[in-house]
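Sequence in, structure out. Go.
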Amino acid sequence: MKQIKLTGRERTVLRYIDFATGTSGAELLESTRLDPEDLVDVVNALMEIGYAQMEPYGESTDAATFRDQLFEVNPSYALELKAAMLRL
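Output:
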């Protein structure tokens, strides 16, 4: 498997997603302090790559529905993502 490389914003978002239970969009917005449009873009990019997923399932989210969704780390990548977040 190839080495996972994350941007600073991706690291920030993944750091605040609870690997065990997931995190709501509203909590992510409060924790990351990113602009809502930027946060939605980062989360959509993580979901497109497959590193994150949304509950209920969806391909992407938008600013209107983001706060009500639950975001989780894809369990298939959890160990690799944890290792990637430790690397600088």
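Check: The chain is about 45% helix and 10% strand. Strands lie at 23-24, 52-55, 70-73.
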